[in-house]
Amino acid sequence: MFCLLSLQHYYQNKLKLAIIGQSQFGQEVYSSLRKQGHRVVGVFTVPDKDGKADPLAVVAEKDGTPVFKFPRWRVKGKPIPEVVEAYKAVGDRKAGFTVFWADDGLDTGPILLQRECAVEPNDTVDTLYNRFLFPEGIKAMVESVQLIADGKAPRVPQTEEGASYEGIQKKSNSKPAEAIHNWIRGHDKVPGAWTVIGGQSVTVYGSSMLGGSVPTGQPLEIDGASQPGLVTNNGLVLYGTDGKALLVRSLQFEDGKMIHASKYFSSGDSASVELTDDEKKMEEEIRNIWKGILSNVLVIEDTTDFFKSGAASMDVVRLVEEVKQKCEGVQLQNEDVYMASTFQDFIQMFVRKLRGEDQEEELVATKEVNNMTVKMPHQCFINGKFEDAENGKTYETINPTDGSVICKVSYASLGDVDRAVAAAKEAYDNGPWGRMNPRDRGSLLYKLADLMEEHQEELATIESIDSGAVYTLALKTHVGMSIQTFRYFAGWCDKIQGKTIPINQARPNRNLTFTRKEPLGVCAIVIPWNYPLMMLAWKSAACLAAGNTLVLKPAQVTPLTALKFAELSVKAGIPRGVVNILPGSGGMVGQRLSDHPDIRKLGFTGSTPIGKQIMKSCALSNLKKVSLELGGKSPLIIFSDCDMDKAVRMGMSSVYFNKGENCIAAGRLFVEESIHDEFISRVVEEIKKMKIGDPLDRSTDHGPQNHKAHLDKLLEYFKFL
């Protein structure tokens, strides 16, 4: 009994900790504290060294614990504000609800039951309601009634202070960006947070913290703000007093009209879209939906206004759901109805969405390199859109030629993985991809291959600066073979079929036995850094041709061509959610994909130890199918009766092709002793002729190794010579 009481007391005294440390010692402390039941809410450690994370960071990221990497904590004895802010950020960020005993009208009665959930960086009251408050609230009310019925309901007293429904909709804009963001999302969707722009009250919706670079735009004076806002192609950028930025998507004016924030300075008279015959049929179907909802309106004309005709908020929900049910694959939101309230505007908005012309301009890193302007998306690609990682984290991707930073790339979190998988599952279960005519699916893949060919120089340039691949090889092999792969599998789309099988022993012989090949569903792909685009093509082209949807994690050090591919997939018309790209940590993102119950198959190319871990995780989670391409140290054996010129030529290409970063590279050469010295001498002569340098120089034979950690590993081998 004493041990049991001690154990209860032990569990009641668990701590939430932030760990500051590094190396194996820090890793062991972290693991030991977690084993004892303490909750680690954040890890503060040193930055990556030569592309390699500190052991403490590795184990924390694998668990999904927030990791902050700073080279120092204080300067001249004073703490660095950025570090202090990050330290404070790992505190509680919770939402929840309380079930009270009835009192005299205020929520000050004794507490009966409470529930809580984590608040994600861009959650709103609306998203919390759908994800947590609604489903868990129902369960909690039933549980509360049962507790009362059983005579077990507690009565926990509380003070009256702060118990009020009164909220302040308007708040000073002279606050840090996160405070403004919290204020906006705390009132989204109802009642809405408002400010003053141009002398009139404007309600703002759809706030998210803006990480990375701020897009260009037109300045807009905001009443009480620390500096003017910025109307960009993605929305209205607001700045806090701390210089950080947030993005607002929608604005609603006093007359009830709602617009996308990017359209603030627009006249609203955009060119009309001319409808095709099929789109005109859809227009009439939607007109009938409007008639069914607006029963008091005899004729639905182009100028008919949904709200002026008597529609309320529930009618908005009905309109959105009926249109989505009638026209599969179109992503409509309630806000779309508010922004296009007349029938003509609604149809124009609907058709643009149907054609994929409503895409917001993604944030891209732009570089003038290789005699061209290269545009590189650098955010996570989830459900057809580029967006920052959920926690706003980024990392630097490095040009191995000179060690310069190409750009900052979103560092996907566990929440991003779950959202990407959910988008892929929704696209497969309810979207058009899996049910699409295979020939139409093949046409989209052919179009994607054509777009890759159209952008092949840009893709090869990105591959060169991100991976160090020699441009001429990147153009011919990395990109060229990727294009060929997609064209090959596009042709397979309408040729995937089963078999009929005779049954000799069946009596009477009236049975028909056949097989039917169907897509698996959501597939995960984890690719290496040696052939970034080609490995993507080899794995994803077959996956898509069969009708699957995918979540792909590129190598952390070479994410840029995968993200450019995502951009081209949108232009090709691939439906939302079919392709999702998550740059970031293999240990965290890859592990979550291996464990995720909604992933049906996982493909991985990489090391044998990681392959073993993936196979184990896939088996334990949901016995998902696995394809592994692991290791590789191919031997090349050269005998004395060889053609020496050919042996040297083949030996050189087997070792040095693509800088030796090749899964079938001849990592071991066995040369018969009698010709050993001659062979080595000839090889050394040929090596001296090789030009090592800038991969964008057309005369370069050998570019830089992919990343510094890999180079250091190669240099270590020389210690044994």
UniProtKB/TrEMBL annotation:
Q: Give the positions the UniProt entry annotates as the active site.
A: 629
This entry's Gene Ontology molecular function terms read:
formyltetrahydrofolate dehydrogenase activity; oxidoreductase activity, acting on the aldehyde or oxo group of donors, NAD or NADP as acceptor
Q: Report the enzyme's class at the first EC level.
A: oxidoreductase
Under the heading Pfam families, the entry gives: Aldedh, Formyl_trans_C, Formyl_trans_N, PP-binding
**Residue ranges of the Carrier domain?**
277-354
Q: Which EC numbers characterise this protein's activity in its record?
A: 1.5.1.6
Asked if Calcium is a keyword of the record, the answer is no
Q: Which reaction equations make up its catalytic activity?
A: (6R)-10-formyltetrahydrofolate + NADP(+) + H2O = (6S)-5,6,7,8-tetrahydrofolate + CO2 + NADPH + H(+)
GO terms under biological process: 10-formyltetrahydrofolate catabolic process; one-carbon metabolic process
Q: Which UniProt keywords apply?
A: One-carbon metabolism, Oxidoreductase
Q: Does the keyword S-adenosyl-L-methionine apply?
A: no
Write down the PROSITE patterns for this protein, in alphabetical order.
ALDEHYDE_DEHYDR_CYS (PS00070), ALDEHYDE_DEHYDR_GLU (PS00687), CARRIER (PS50075), GART (PS00373)
Q: Which PANTHER family match?
A: ALDEHYDE DEHYDROGENASE-RELATED
- Which protein family is named in the record? In the N-terminal section; belongs to the GART family.
Q: What's the name of the protein?
A: formyltetrahydrofolate dehydrogenase
Q: Which organism is it from?
A: Scophthalmus maximus
